[in-house]
Hints:
The protein is mostly helical. Helix content is 70%, strand content 2%.
Amino acid sequence: MHGTALSGWLLVALCAASGAYCLLRLRTAEGPERTAAGSEAVMGFGMAAMAVPAAALTPPEWSWPLYAAVFGLAAAHGLLAAVRHGGHHLHHLVGSLAMLYMAVTMAATPAAGTGGHAGHGTDAVGGGIAVLTGVLLAYFGVYVLRSGARLVPVPAGGPGVVTAAGELTRVCRLSMALAMLAMLLTL
């Protein structure tokens, strides 16, 4: 993705930490929560890999098609999970499709990952399709605001009790959604 090296490395650290936490959740979770933890771990580590600044490591030509294949499979898995379980798996599907979109865009962009600015003077944003990028930005923006609002403490006797692990899971999901916003903005 395009952007400064510092912001890229911060994004790598954030996404890798989220992926690592999701791997830890994977060890203890069961059923649909286990599937969600696995999907989020793949997403976190995939986002970390895609966010490595091009100034530090120029990705080989085969990396973008590889990312597209991985996130295409993740999208297919997300679709099956969404059909079976619904709920948060729909978000995983949208996230996987967004990552697939970014990988395909970067693969099709001349000088992908080299800091070039392809797409100027077209209806594209960076190298992507402006309308699709806008829809994804709106989706993740709303998701971030909604998730952030859920983390705000409620007065005693408020709706439900959330455990510390549940709050950390929400923070993990929020941080990955923020990272997705940053990646889409720099596409």
